[in-house]
Amino acid sequence: MSTLTGSRWAGMAEPGRGSRRPPGFAGNVVTVARREARDAVTSRWFVLYTAAFAGLGLAVSFVSAAGSGGTGLSGYGRTTAGLVNLVLLVVPLMALTAGASSVASDRERGMLPYLLAQPVSRGEVLLGKYFGLALALAASMCLGLGVCAAVLAWKGHVTRPASLAWLLGLSTALALGMLSVGMLISVVARRASVAVGTAVFAWLVLVFVSDLGLMAGAITLRLRIEELFMLSLINPLQVFKMWSLYAADASLDVLGPAGLYATEELGRTLHAVFAGCLAAWAVVPMLAAAVVMSRRSPL
Amino acid sequence: MISIRGVSKSFGRFLAVDGVNLEIPEGESVALWGLNGAGKTTLIRCVLGLVRYRGAITVAGWDARRHGKRARMHVGYVPQELGFYDELGVARAVLFFASLKGVSVRSVDDTLGAVGLEGHGGKRVRELSGGMKQRLALAIAMLGDPPVLVLDEVTASLDACGRREFVALLSGLSGTGRTLLFASHRVEEVRALAGRVVMMERGRAVSEVPAAGFTGAAAVAPGGSVVGAVGAVGAVGGGGSGAVLHLMMPLGVRLHAAAQLRAGGFEATLNGVGLLVPVHRERKAEPFQILAEARIRVEDFEVLPTAGEEAR
């Protein structure tokens, strides 16, 4: 059995004992993000979600295209609408669960304290994990939507690259917001299973309960149109849906009175309003997660 | 190199570390010794900045709280059990932590070879045994040749053979000008690696003794409280009786176990983590038999040579 000596180690890596400056904030964030992204894209959830997203996307696209005769912008509009609904279901689930399991599972297997025993700050670890997972989610969506677009084009259906790019960009923005919520859940929860369970519950609330709540609230509280619109801005999924429709059509007429109100009252500023809402969903939960993480023991 | 001044840490109402003061100059090797729950691991976590604490800790002159990254830049840390990213490749793990430490590794093979892991770089972490994971943790801890090494019960999860090998590996690091702070409940480990032993009880550093001849034997106050007196192995073992069994077991059964052993004709002395039982060379198994019949579970054990045996 070999024994070690200090000099033996000193020769293997630089810097040695003389210069000791830890890497900067950005350097550590990039290091953690690269590892997180690599870990994510080689994981089963990534393959599963990407395959499911692409498969369902293809199915939705073909059904929509077939229903419209397969050609023309109306055909593509139906396809986009179908994909928007698919994104609304799949992307939040992907992002919430990915974020929720990240910090909590590291804590559960003892990796988090070990990581934080290195010359790295908690903020660097949190942000690195966020960016790494965001990269993996963006890659998953690019693959999923890319496969849909490629197969549709190959089969001769009309595709409009700009609309697809919009959809991809908005899906990524939605994913960033949901990932941020997932990270907050992950930092707060003690166990990974609790974190993932909470994330699924949050997904159910955002996808189903908030819609029903909004409808019920509108009826029982006799909400005014502008109040209804403002309330719908609280739910990032509604924001994504409205922004997707507005980006495709420059109008929200299809949403009824609330859509008409928004188009007439806010007009071109709607893009900024929607962007601000989704940006808030990406930033505020992450800030809260950073505060919780800085105060909480990683054990 | 490490300065701990008036450090306290509580979890709710439980005071895990209570006003500990400890100065460790450069190049010294200090062992933290005590019962489970004595505060050893919590104190180490304070040094690493993993938990909030009252008081002040500096590592290489850097405040562990305010300049945590700077302080940890001087520290290599090996935990009790490595909770690694299982799917990560061994070589990738080394490169990942090297990057976090701002160290460029000239050769991953050499780094792994230094801890006896040559040829394992292509494996995934989950394919390594417990002992190999500890060696990997040591290789990572030593990246950049840090002046301080902090070890937390590093051999607790290893078998006897793995323990011997790991301690042999570590012994090459003590006495090289490196500062060592480690928690252990194994006498052999303390004697092999430490220069000074700090005995901890209920979160407080109650006494300090030189590691030479250390057995951990302690006077026991009514109620089983360790008060910190230490005897040499020869004195405990009655010199020339062959060996001293160090039997580790939960706190709640130690007094009962000592009574059973005394009834069976053995001297039994409580130390920080179990019992010291001097035995004749040919009667080593008997204490185990007595304890098994009394349904007392021995968690771990080590056989310590007596002073007379060591001299030979």
Q: Give the number of DSSP strands of chain A.
A: 1
Span between termini of chain A: 34 Å
Domains of chain B, number: 2
Provide the β-strand percentage band of chain A.
under 5%
**Helical fraction of chain B:** 25-40%
Which stretches of chain B are poorly predicted, pLDDT < 50 over at least 5 residues? Answer: 219-240
Record the SSE blueprint.
The complex is a heterodimer of chains A (299) and B (312).
Chain A: H1 6-10, E1 13-14, H2 25-41, H3 44-67, H4 72-108, H5 111-116, H6 122-154, H7 161-188, H8 192-220, H9 225-232, H10 236-249, H11 257-266, H12 270-295
Helix pairs in contact in A: 2-6, 3-4, 3-6, 4-6, 4-7, 4-8, 4-10, 6-7, 6-12, 7-8, 7-10, 7-12, 9-11, 10-12
Chain B: E1 2-11, E2 14-24, E3 29-34, H1 40-47, E4 54-59, E5 62-63, H2 68-72, E6 75-78, H3 90-100, E7 104-105, H4 108-113, H5 130-141, E8 148-152, H6 160-171, E9 179-183, H7 187-193, E10 196-201, E11 204-210, E12 220-221, E13 225-226, H8 233-237, E14 242-248, H9 251-263, E15 269-270, E16 274-280, H10 286-293, E17 300-305, H11 307-311
Parallel strand pairs in B: 3-9, 3-10, 6-8, 8-9
Antiparallel strand pairs in B: 1-2, 1-4, 4-5, 10-11, 12-13, 14-16, 14-17, 15-16
